From TrEMBL:
Official protein name in the record: Unannotated protein
Cited InterPro entries: Crypto/Photolyase_FAD-like_sf, PhrB-like, Rossmann-like_a/b/a_fold, UV-DNA_repair_photolyase
Positions in coiled-coil regions: none
Entry-linked Pfam families: DPRP
Length: 490
């Protein structure tokens, strides 16, 4: 044997990273199930189950390709690698560049050598050169460059369909009664059952833990959901937990699928003429635009970025985030219950319900970030740090987004069916039945009006604030709402 190839649990693809060109005759594979990863935090059991079972299945598939696989359990990744090195003394350890600053540091200090991380479509150096050339890091500008560079949905130098994005077509509220095709239920095998038993998880069939299952999920999305994805991508409904979302982010983030496979499948489907441009463009933008941008920004902004708290938000995490019975707000109750069931809700409840609530209540960004990391199935560090600190709670003072994503109940009422059965009224900002989102939205603007005064993208909101004639009553209600949220009675 000549090398130890270390495969982290988010590099599970044979054709990318350190496995590209690996040879069973000379390469031994190391995988480490570290206690830091399994018991270090209050991880959602579904998430742990998915990550561990996927890794064990992947180890088995490498063995069937003829590799010697050392799958060890240890306190940390480094102690696990030491165990493997003892068995194969003197062999160098190779790994693709890890996906977080912490693991990069730990492995560098352990003299691991790195090959380029090609689990993304944009090399880190290429992103940096783009970001260095920008005054503000607008995702839309990056995305257009990606479309041209990767030649996706292009007609020569022009975007297919005559526009770079179709956001306006993609903001439909939920249909009266959603009756879309079912999502796949994934069969479980011996490895799945073993992992679930070890971590005390009640097994579900929501998420695949194999490459074959991830490919089946991709095919199911393309065949049955892709055409209708775009117009309903922002809608929220209690009728269905996923609408037409792809449910592919967990597999993209742990390596079972590569972004290029997903983009190629989507582009090929579009070429058949069966997929409307607004769905094709909306979906492809998530993959080649947003996903790549967020990863690029994680590395560009550096390890200290996660500690930002520019709005001085210091409220402790509200009890409702961990307990849906600790609130009467129907939108939050439903969303947190969904997360408890599947470790997933789509991007709009994440942004416009959960993050919005953390933002306008002044919840500490790091406490909220830690919670988001723990409960979502696809919550890698590189995804969550920019998404929460930059986009979700505007804790970076606008380095990433030009304005905060704060909204009152009117937006939620328009884009969901949560409000009708709710105790609160999205139109009211004062009084006992006022929607907490609406009350706290105005309070948020009022508390930060000086910060946002010079931000021209906030001028309309600040103008609206200045026209309010019930600020004293609003402040009374704010007090009641915040106390009630802390006590779990609102
Ligand atoms: Fe949520 Fe307010 Fe609507 Fe109730 S009224 S569901 S709290 S947005």
């Amino acid at each position: 044997m000549k090398r130890i190839i270390y495969i982290p649990f988010d590099h599970l693809h044979s054709n990318y990273g350190a496995l590209k060109g690996a040879d069973p005759a000379v390469d031994v594979i190391a995988m480490v199930e570290s206690a830091r990863m399994t018991t270090g935090r209050n991880w959602h059991k579904e998430r742990l189950f998915f990550l561990i079972s996927s890794a064990r299945h992947f180890a088995k598939s490498l063995e069937s390709e003829g590799f010697q696989v050392e799958y060890v359990k240890a306190a940390t990744t480094v102690t696990g690698l030491e165990l493997v090195s003892k068995k194969y003394p003197g062999l160098p350890i190779v790994c693709a560049e890890p996906s977080s600053f912490r693991q990069f540091e730990a492995l560098k200090n352990h003299s691991v050598t790195f090959v380029e991380n090609d689990f993304f479509l944009t090399p880190r150096a290429l992103f940096r050169s783009w970001a260095d050339s920008q005054k503000s890091y607008l995702m839309e500008n990056f995305y257009r460059k990606q479309r041209v560079r990767l030649d996706v949905l292009m007609e020569g130098a022009d975007p297919v369909g005559g526009a770079w994005n179709f956001d306006k077509e993609n903001r439909l509220p939920p249909p009266k009664k959603y009756e879309g095709p079912d999502y796949l239920a994934h069969e479980r095998d011996r490895i799945d059952i073993e992992v679930a038993a070890e971590i005390g998880h009640l097994i579900t069939t929501t998420w695949a833990t194999t490459r074959a299952g991830a490919l089946a999920q991709l095919k199911n999305f393309i065949d049955n959901h892709f055409a209708e994805f775009g117009p309903l991508e922002d809608a929220m409904t209690t009728d269905n937990w996923a609408l037409h979302h792809s449910l592919l982010s967990p597999y993209l983030n742990n390596g079972l699928l590569h972004a290029s496979e997903v983009v190629e499948a989507a582009a090929a489907a579009y070429r058949t003429g069966k997929i409307p441009i607004e769905s094709a463009e909306g979906f492809i933008r998530q993959i080649i635009g947003w996903r790549e941008y967020v990863n690029g920004m994680y590395w560009f902004l550096g390890p200290d970025y996660r500690e930002n708290n520019e709005l001085q938000a210091n409220r402790k995490l509200l009890p409702l985030f961990n307990d849906p019975s600790a609130t009467k707000m129907n939108c939050i109750k439903e969303t947190v219950a969904d997360i408890q069931d599947r470790a997933w809700v789509h991007h709009i409840p994440r942004l416009m319900l959960l993050s919005n609530l953390a933002l306008i209540t002044g919840t500490n960004p790091q406490e909220f970030l830690d919670w988001m990391r723990e409960v979502f199935i696809d919550a890698s560090e590189w995804v969550m740090v920019p998404n929460v600190i930059g986009m979700g709670v505007h804790a970076d003072g606008g380095q990433m987004m030009t304005k905060p994503y704060a909204a009152g109940g009117a937006y939620i009422s328009r884009m969901s069916n949560y409000c009708k059965p709710c105790e609160y009224n999205p139109k009211l900002r004062t009084g006992e039945t006022a929607c907490p989102f609406t009350t706290l939205y105005w309070d948020f603007l009022d508390r930060h009006k000086e910060t946002f005064a010079k931000n021209h993208r906030m001028s309309q909101q600040i103008f609206g604030l200045n026209r309010l004639n019930d600020l004293p009553e609003l402040k009374e209600r704010v007090k009641e709402v915040l106390e009630g949220l802390d006590q779990g009675s609102i």
